[in-house]
Structure formats: C-alpha cells, structure tokens
Amino acid sequence: MKILVPVKRVIDYNVKIRVAADGSGVETANVKMSMNPFDEIAVEEAVRLREAGVASEVVLVSCGVAGCVDTLRTGMALGADRALHVSSDAELQPLAVARLLKAVVGREQPHLVICGKQAIDDDANQTGQMLAALLGWGQAAFASRVQIGDNRASVTREIDGGLETVSVALPAVITTDLRLNEPRFASLPNIMKAKKKPLDTVTPDELGVDVTPRLKTLKVAEPPKRAAGVKLASVAELVAKLRDEAKVLR
Amino acid sequence: MSILVIAEHDNAGLRPATLNTLTAAAKIGGPVTVLVAGSECAGAAAAAAALPGVARVLSADAPHLAHPTAEDMAAVALIAAAGHSHVLAPSGSFGKNFMPRVAATLDVAQVSDIVEVVSADTFVRPIYAGNALATVQSADAVKVITVRATAFDPVTASGGNAPVEALQAPPPSPLSAFVSQELSTSPRPELGNARVVVTGGRALGSAEAYRSVLEPLADKLGAAMGASRAAVDAGYAPNDFQVGQTGKIVAPDLYVAIGVSGAIQHLAGMKDSKVIVAINKDADAPIFQVADYGLVGDLFELVPQLVEALG
Ligand SMILES: Cc1cc2nc3c(=O)[nH]c(=O)nc-3n(C[C@H](O)[C@H](O)[C@H](O)COP(=O)(O)OP(=O)(O)OC[C@H]3O[C@@H](n4cnc5c(N)ncnc54)[C@H](O)[C@@H]3O)c2cc1C
Ligand SMILES: Cc1cc2nc3c(=O)[nH]c(=O)nc-3n(C[C@H](O)[C@H](O)[C@H](O)COP(=O)(O)OP(=O)(O)OC[C@H]3O[C@@H](n4cnc5c(N)ncnc54)[C@H](O)[C@@H]3O)c2cc1C
User: Based on the domain organization, do B45 and B120 belong to the same domain?
Assistant: First the structure.
C-alpha cells in the first residue's frame, strides 16, 4: 500500500506573528518556517504504518514556494521515502491545493492520503475533505486512532462531544488530530540520508490545474487588544472584584 | 439572494450554535431556509420552524442520518443547496467535517469560521490562531461558509412559524459508515456555550487532581470544565475539553484559567471571554497579559480557598 502525505510549510508555531503595516498579510521575511504540526503527525502515522508492514511506501507532496523543499526534506528525515514539490509562487487556497493533490493522486495512485486536519496559518480545515470529495473517496477527519484492514480503515475521530468511530472504504483520505501519535525527532544520520532521497518537481501547469484564487484578501488587520488587568493580593479581593466590579457571580 | 442554514442538532432539538448561525444569516440578508437532516428529527425541525426569520424548514428524516457521515451529510446538503446563494453551518466538528465536501463539489471556495459579515460577499475570519483578522471577498456564485458561533449573538428561540417540508435524502454512501461513539456525559453545561468555564492546565499534575481540585470550583460557579492541550495530552481530561486554536473556541462571561501558561494556541480559544481570571505561580506567565484579574500563587492552596470564599 502506498501512502501520500501532503505537507505544508507554515510559520513555526512558536513565532509571534506580526501583521504587515500595509494590511496585505503577515510578515514572512526572516521568520522561522516549519512543517505544519498536524502534517508531522501525518508523516509519523504513515511511517509507522510502513514500519508495521502495512504500507510499502510513503510519498510526500508539498505545494508552494521553493522553501517547501526544506519541508519535504524534513519529512524524509522523519522516514518518508520520496517527495514531490508542486512548485508555485502563487497564493494557493485550499480548493486549489485540493485540485493539485487530486492530480498528484492521479499520477501516484496511493491507497491512502493522510493530511493534517488544519494548517496553523490559515486555520481553514478544508483541504483533506475537499480532496476526498473531488476524488469521490470516503474520508475520516480529525483522527485520533487509525486501524487499517483489508479494504477498509477503522478510524476514531475527535468530535465536539467526545469520540466517534467510523469505518471508511479504501482508498480514502484521513486527516490527523493532535492525539493520533507523538512525532519522532529527526536524527542527524536520518537528516543526512534524507538529502539523498528522490525529490521531483512539477508545476501546476504540468498537472493541468488552474490555481487562480477564488477568495480575495481585502485586508489583514490586528485583532483588538485586551487591556492588561490587575494582579490581586488575595482570594478575598478576587471574590470582591468578581462580585462588585465584574458582576459575573450569581 | 437566499440562504440555506444547515442545522446542528440532536434530533430532539437544535444545538445552540445553530441560533448564532441564524444571526449571521440575517446579517447577509434574504430569505432563510433551514435544513434539518437526521433521524426522527421532527423535534429539531419544529424548533427550527419556530425561529424568527426562518422562511422554510427542510426536514430530511432517514435512519442512516442518525449519525450522519460526511459523505451522507454532504449529499443531502447539496440537494438542499440548489438555488441558494449562500450555504451556512456552524463551524463545530459537525460543520467542519462535511462543508468542505459541499464546497469542493460545487467547485467553490469555502470561507471558514467567519466572525463578521461585512456584506453579502465579504467576511472577516481569524487566521494565525486569531492573531490576525483577514477580510476576504468571495467571487464564487455560491458562498459556502462556516460560522464561529461565539462571534454572533443567538436569535431568540421563538416567534417564527415556518412551514416544514420533507426532503428525500439520497441513499447511504458505501464509502463510509458510522460504527460507534463515546460521548462524554456530564451534568455540567456544554463547554461551547457555558456562562462560566473553569480550565485546568498541565500544573494539575494528574487526572485525580484535575477533578478533585477543579470540580468543587466548577460546582460553585455552575461552570463547564475545560483543559489546555497539555492537560488533555497527559490524560487529565478528555479530548473534547480542549480549549484553543485546535480545540474549542469559547467566549463565556467568566473564564478561570488555573495552572495554564497562556500559549498563543490556548489564548486563541478563550481570549474573547468577557472576564478572564488567571491563577498561576509564575508572575510572568503570558496568561496574565490577557487576564482581567490575576492571582499569583500555588493553585493547590488558592483554588480550595476560592471555593471556600465563594461560600
Ligand atoms: C492573507 C493570506 C495571504 C496568503 N498569501 C499567500 C502567499 O503569499 N503565498 C502562498 O503560497 N499562499 C498564500 N496564502 C494561501 C495560504 O497560505 C494557504 O495555502 C491556503 O489558504 C490553504 O489553507 P490551509 O493551509 O489553512 O488549509 P487547511 O485545509 O487548513 O490544510 C489542511 C491540510 O492540507 C494539506 N495542505 C494544505 N496546504 C498544502 C500545501 N500547500 N501543500 C501540501 N499540502 C497542503 C496539509 O496536509 C494540511 O495539514 C495566503 C492566504 C491568506 C489568507
Ligand atoms: C499544532 C498545535 C496546536 C495546539 N493547540 C492547542 C490548543 O488548541 N489548546 C491549547 O491549550 N494548547 C494547544 N497547543 C499547545 C500549546 O502550545 C501549549 O503547549 C499548551 O497550551 C500548554 O498547556 P499548559 O498551559 O497547561 O502547560 P504549561 O505551558 O506547562 O503551563 C503550566 C503552567 O502552570 C503553572 N504552574 C505550575 N505549577 C503550578 C502550581 N502549583 N500552581 C499554580 N500554577 C502552576 C506554570 O507556571 C505554568 O505557567 C498546541 C500546540 C501545537 C503545536
């Protein structure tokens, strides 16, 4: 079984982002970039399935600017076998990414696609579900446990009220939630090895996909700031404030 | 313009987020149709029909929609969506699961998690864990939108009298099937719409302490209980307690953060709360930057004192 894992390059989750002064977006120059954390979980899950003998090959794909190659190398250092860079300097929105991934699925013919549930930059939480719909495949989103059977996967999903288990026919798209696994760290030898693993490049044109954005970003602004409050000396003072000033006690 | 709102419900009645979504629909303008897809869902359909501003309710009542899969939900939503300019659903795990399938099938973008309606085609949505707000305009013929419930007031639950029409649901998809669920049962209010939330972080140190220290306080305040990711990962609290960028977004009247450092991913889920209280032994913890009232000290001493002081 071949597994395709789409990985996105995003601003590192530890970076405190800054909104650009002209309101066009957020500052990305000289900012640390990393693999989207949910995608690390996806890579880890795929690699574990290969290590367990369930999968035979793990292929990564990342869509976007030249820097995506670093993200792909990181993923190969975590154990993926090879990678594909869909190279584009355009703004790629989820529908465009899903269409690119559909074209890649057409070429690679994987039996399973494991995506992150959301990218921590745009927080759209769409791409995997869109890809499944475009392919006419089943989906299991927000997975916290995955068991692969012969023709189906049993997936436990994190939902608002708790957990839900679904059975989905393969091939399918699974999207990862935080508690699916704890990704390993790449060891130095594996980072070196990853440099020699195969990495191909294609363009959206070569895949025959029009990536024109459908949503226009008119402006990006900072959210209203909360005024800092006060530190109180005692529990009694807190209760008095809550009762008399904030009036939130009943 | 005409709007389809896809109700989140439990068959007997509507989930509160549906009422907030209707307010967003009203801001867009135009007649509103509500789709209630479920099994033996007449109660939810009747509740939808009684909402002000609802012109029509479509009820798709079929056994396989008792626990609808994304595939089946998208299929029935696509039928109901025909002829509408906007399709809205609350952006909980229910809406997030199937709405992107609806959008992709219609070949349109989805606008996720809107917090403001600027006009019928322009919306504000948070990006980067709410550290930036993007105003986006959709050029697509149909706007597929998920709505952040905490950003809109709920409509009142009565006053309307819309007709309920039956909608034939397509047969179940062979692609996926519901197997089982494990729902957290709790006598407490639901986290997503509680008036007060008491949240515990890694500092609680164990599931036992999480409960024995926090429950008495939650009882006193009539609060829902929440948790940081660290507390959930460590097994102190179930997954559906997680508050944050990748968990639940809450905006209660009072949010009490106990032994939570205030990572940006956590703040993303609670910084729109009206009043925030933080209890942390580190005076420099980032949570104090958003807290209206802070207590610096050991939670294992302060929380029992607080319970007692609340009388
Ligand atoms: C204000 C603004 C400015 C932007 N500017 C730019 C820009 O200058 N350049 C630019 O390229 N884009 C830009 N974008 C687009 C943006 O970065 C995303 O690529 C797009 O919105 C996808 O959303 P998402 O990643 O949140 O999707 P989600 O649906 O949250 O992503 C879920 C999963 O899909 C997969 N996935 C998503 N994207 C990719 C990808 N590219 N490659 C491989 N797998 C992927 C991953 O597995 C990921 O975990 C901009 C967006 C906004 C709002
Ligand atoms: C992709 C991604 C998504 C994430 N999503 C979320 C999310 O949705 N929600 C979320 O919460 N996090 C999320 N996180 C994790 C987040 O970055 C933090 O790691 C997490 O919020 C920390 O939890 P905490 O505050 O409980 O623990 P810590 O950061 O360890 O803080 C514990 C705090 O307790 C205090 N303390 C210790 N002992 C005591 C005591 N006896 N009395 C009083 N105070 C004490 C300490 O001073 C400290 O400030 C995410 C991270 C990533 C990478």
Answer: yes
